[in-house]
Amino acid sequence: MQKVPYEKPVINKISAGVPDKFGMKSTIQPITEIDDVAIKNLISEYGSPLYVLSEKTIRDTYKKALAAFETRYPKVQFAWSYKTNYLNAVCKIYHQEGSWAEVVSGFEYEKAIANGVPGNKIIFNGPDKSREDLIKAIKNNSLIHIDHLDEFYEIASVTKELQLTAKVAIRVNMDAGIYPQWFRFGFNYESGEAWNVLNKIMQTPGFELIGLHTHIGTYIMAPQAYGIATTKLAQLAVRVFHKYNHHIQYIDLGGGFASKNTLKGAYLPGSDTCPTFDDYAEHITDALHQSDIPYDHMPTLFLETGRALIDDAGYLLGSVLANKRLPDGRKSLIIDIGVNLLFTSFWYEHNIVPASYTQPDLENTTIYGPLCMNIDVIREAINFPVMEKGEHVVIKRIGAYNMTQWLQFINYRPRIVLIDTDGNTHIVREQETHETMNQMDRLPEHLK
Ligand SMILES: *Cc1c(COP(=O)(O)O)cnc(C)c1O
């Protein structure tokens, strides 16, 4: 008989309630206010639909995530993933909390500089960095994470021409037990490609190898995958040390922690099934402590967490436009929030609730957006109370990606309001208008 391996005991709170054979009991708890500010006041002051961000939730969640890692490992640095939400107000809050910037384009790089982030606190990721972007980043001492060999050659040519040294890391893709595996970004671990490129970097003038990076995917429900990824990066660091007597300054595990949203097709809500920051931190820091990296040269741990930090802080408020009975007898509700404002509705069953107390009877309802497009469905089927035209709804946990991937389509994009930690509200992005839309149009002479 094989000896069963020892596993550390853990206690996990189960807050799923008791589902019966039909799943969870369906009750709908309205959301009438956010951080003590009434929804109806927000809508009457700023319009509908309306994005709302809670500064308190942003800061509290950040502190919780940081504590999960800092209590387990001495050197931790978060870098805010700009593409997750690059509203200036949001970026500034993270930078105030001590977060660096993680950018994936020249546009995001410019934004980070304009937000006052020093160049040497910007991580530059992604496959799309132009020669001009690279020159700027090298001159600013930014951390350039090389994605492919053409980028390596471009950097080699720039540093040679300008007599500069680039601070670089490589992005590594690997089998961490997550499928489908993301292998289109960076260099593969198992095939030896990553090790090959590290040798090229160590042997080419103009490069200073400072880090190792991976981003294994997004909405990763298995924290042990991060343990595997950390171990593989640490093995590369040890190999570099043995061959070149060179110490890697940091290991960057990227983003990908799951937020508490519920994926389409999931049986239990994401709030009950998603790992906590502590779960992720435990696997990552255990792998670092157990690695063969010399103790005096333990690397800084970088994290580029996006969705798990911001999702809970964002709300989308809207209003009922109409009720409609479909020919098959189903009830439907049309609201003023379309999928163009809620990009994540394509993979999440978003939690949508009334903004006031309704009568308790629920009916299976399809919730449509206002667009003249058949795909504009916010919820295919949800048990929902009767709501009248003009009444308000709230969609929870929409802080990640919706304010960057939104599409201007058919309607103007709405305002975004921030509730600060004292409960004051601030417009942090204005609504689009006829004027803003026309600003970029150009009419050829013969059409005037
Ligand atoms: C998108 C992205 C992130 C953030 O990912 P989340 O899943 O939102 O945490 C971090 N790093 C890189 C390189 C990314 O592309």
From TrEMBL:
Transmembrane segments: none annotated. Coiled coil: none annotated. Residues 310-399 form the Orn/DAP/Arg decarboxylase 2 C-terminal domain. One of its GO terms (molecular function) is diaminopimelate decarboxylase activity. CDD domains: PLPDE_III_MccE_like. It holds the Pfam family Orn_Arg_deC_N. It comes from the Bacteria. Keywords: Pyridoxal phosphate. Gene3D superfamilies: Alanine racemase, Lyase, Ornithine Decarboxylase, Chain A, domain 1. The keyword Mitochondrion does not apply. Its cofactor is pyridoxal 5'-phosphate. Residues 63-309 form the Orn/DAP/Arg decarboxylase 2 N-terminal domain. GO terms for biological process: lysine biosynthetic process via diaminopimelate. This is Diaminopimelate decarboxylase. It comes from Plebeiibacterium sediminum. The lineage of its organism: Bacteria, Pseudomonadati, Bacteroidota, Bacteroidia, Marinilabiliales.
